[in-house]
Amino acid sequence: MSHNRLEFSGLAELKRDLKNLPGELAREARTVVAQTATKAAGEIVSAYPTRTGNLKRGVKVADESSGFSAVATVKNTAKHAYIFENGTQARHTDIGANRGAMPPGNVFIPIVVRRRRGMYHELAEIVRKHGLVVTGSAG
């Protein structure tokens, strides 16, 4: 009777590499995510108009990464940031005087969307570099 034999060479190394992969991917991803958030924040600050400086001073980057995650948030804490970004409808005084509408600034969101799309491509390259297959598109 013939015996079939299946032998794995390097199985211990493969197990070790697979265990280390999530941590290594997260470390590399944290760098990309943090750099992307910082660049987006700088670009937003540069694009904001300077009147009082509150919009520019309100731009903050928060690194919220943990062991196996890479998270950074760009936000604007200025009280009027939402109004600047989205604009307002026409306003009128109590006696009917038209104060006009404020057009949307369209600064924050377009910059973040563009930077995030580039970040997704960089993250996909990290995953590919580690021998994994990436399918689909980030935008």
The value of Rg in angstroms is: 24 Å
* First-last Cα distance: 58 Å
Q: Domains counted in the coordinates: how many?
A: 1
- Low-pLDDT ranges: none
Global geometry = elongated
Estimate the helix proportion, in percent.
40-55%
Strand order of the largest sheet: 1-2
| Quaternary status | single chain
Residue fraction in strands: 5-15%
Report mean pLDDT, rounded to a whole number: 85
Question: Would you give an account of this structure?
Answer:
This protein has 139 residues and is mainly α. It has one domain (24-129). 50% of the residues lie in helices and 11% in strands. It is built from four helices and four strands; from the N terminus they run ααββαββα. The protein has helices spanning 11-47, 54-57, 81-86, 108-129, and strands at 59-63, 72-76, 91-92, 98-100. The strands form two sheets. Strands 1-2 form a two-stranded antiparallel sheet. Strand 3 (91-92) and strand 4 (98-100) form a beta hairpin. Helix 1 (11-47) runs antiparallel to helix 4 (108-129). It is elongated.
Architecture blueprint of SSEs:
Layout: H1 11-47, H2 54-57, E1 59-63, E2 72-76, H3 81-86, E3 91-92, E4 98-100, H4 108-129
Antiparallel strand pairs: 1-2, 3-4
Helix pairs in contact: 1-4
Keywords summarizing the entry:
139 residues, two-stranded antiparallel sheet, 4 helices, 50% helix, elongated
Quick overview:
This protein is mainly alpha-helical and 139 residues long. It has helices spanning 11-47, 54-57, 81-86, 108-129; strands spanning 59-63, 72-76, 91-92, 98-100.
